[in-house]
């Protein structure tokens, strides 16, 4: 089975992405659907509270991948934090099935990496 498919063979769809700063302020929010963007702003701000709880001093979470943050309606919200405390929040639609952590970790960023590499080659 492919790394980005869940148990019944359907692929989860990424519907939104947010980048949260180290002071828990949303730096970038992107909506990949036709739904109003306000919903994704709300999800990003709600994620700030959950992220703060997960990375609070004294928490036993030492993994940069923060996993499932919460589920709201038909969206699952996942988090990842960099060493510089910048957080990435991924909003994914799923229908009645759970996405395994390895499926989210397996999301390919190759197209994004390729884009940055092409810009880098222009500068060098």
From TrEMBL:
GO terms for cellular component: cytoplasm. It holds the Pfam family Sedlin_N. One of its GO terms (biological process) is endoplasmic reticulum to Golgi vesicle-mediated transport. InterPro entries: Longin-like_dom_sf (IPR011012), Sedlin (IPR006722), TRAPPC2L (IPR044760). It comes from the Eukaryota. PANTHER family: TRAFFICKING PROTEIN PARTICLE COMPLEX SUBUNIT 2. Belongs to the TRAPP small subunits family. Sedlin subfamily. This is Trafficking protein particle complex subunit 2-like protein.
């Amino acid at each position: 089975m492919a790394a980005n498919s869940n148990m019944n063979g359907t692929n989860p769809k990424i519907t939104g992405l947010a980048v949260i700063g180290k002071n828990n302020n949303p730096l970038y929010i992107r909506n990949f659907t036709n739904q109003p963007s306000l919903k994704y702003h709300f999800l990003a701000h709600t994620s700030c509270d959950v992220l703060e709880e997960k990375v609070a001093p004294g928490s036993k979470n030492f993994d940069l991948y923060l996993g499932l943050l919460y589920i709201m309606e038909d969206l699952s919200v996942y988090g990842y934090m960099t060493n510089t405390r910048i957080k990435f929040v991924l909003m994914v639609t799923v229908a009645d099935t759970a996405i395994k952590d390895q499926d989210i970790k397996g999301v390919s960023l190759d197209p994004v990496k390729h884009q940055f590499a092409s810009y880098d080659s222009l500068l060098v």
